[in-house]
Amino acid sequence: MTTVEIEFCLPCGYLNRAEDVQHVLVQSFGETIDEVTLVPGDDGVFTVTANGTTVFDIADDDYDVDEIVRDVRQHA
Questions:
Q1: C-beta separation of 75 from 35 below 8 A
Q2: How do 33-41 and 2-9 pair as beta strands?
Q3: Nearest-5° angle of CA 34, CA 37, CA 38?
Q4: Cα distances (angstroms) measured from residue 22 to each of 12, 55, 70
Q5: Cα separation of 30 and 10, whole Å?
Q6: 9-58, pLDDT tens digit by residue?
Q7: Buried b (16+ CB within 10 A) or exposed e, 42-71
Q8: pLDDT score, position 31
Q9: I need a surface site. Which of 23, 38, 48, 71 has the fewest CB within 10 A?
Q10: How is residue 60 annotated by DSSP?
Q11: 69, 24 in Cβ contact below 8 A?
Q12: What is the tens place of the pLDDT at every residue in 31-41?
């Protein structure tokens, strides 16, 4: 089972992106995912962590929902 945390910058307006990623992950993984948690943050943060491993960081990667899902799948 997989646990995912999406930390996003609320002042930057990343809530919609975080919700989009959450929706696609739940839709893609269905019942095999235990939890997808949204964690509000600041300072431009947008990271996705799967089972304790950061699979996406907006500081290092281009935002691509499909790639995020592939990366989560590799760490599931």
A1: no
A2: parallel
A3: 160
A4: 18, 14, 14
A5: 27
A6: 999 999 999 999 999 999 999 888 999 999 999 999 999 999 999 999 99
A7: eeebbbbbbeeeebbebeebeeeeeebbeb
A8: 87
A9: 23
A10: T
A11: yes
A12: 889 999 999 99
The residue behind tokens 């699979």 is: 55
Query: Is the Cα torsion angle 49, 50, 51, 53 positive or negative in sign?
Result: negative
Residue with tokens 């964690």: 39
DSSP string for 7-58: EEETTTT-HHHHHHHHHHHHHHHGGGEEEEEEEEE-TT-EEEEETTEEEEET
- Token pair, residue 31, equals 């019942």
Residue bearing tokens 């910058």: 9
